[in-house]
Design goal:
Largest sheet: none
Number of helices: 3
Number of strands: 0
Radius of gyration: 15 Å
Shape: flat
Strand content: under 5%
Length: 62
């Protein structure tokens, strides 16, 4: 505990975790423990991962 760094990435904001985990209380507890002594970095902009996807498919995903 608190000995090493951990990086967690997600495309779902913390407020949407209740839907992902299926339980609002569990999602809140998980977020509380993960975010204890953390730095949240929100990255916005175009996805590098989608740069080679055809434009037609990109519009369907957004």
């Amino acid at each position: 505990y608190e000995q090493r760094s951990t990086i967690i990435t997600t495309n779902v904001g913390i407020t949407g975790w209740a839907k992902v985990f299926g339980d609002e209380v569990a999602a809140s507890a998980i977020a509380d423990r993960i975010c204890h002594h953390c730095h949240v970095i929100k990255i916005t902009g175009r996805s590098y991962r989608l740069k080679d996807v055809p434009t037609e498919r990109k519009m369907k995903e957004e």
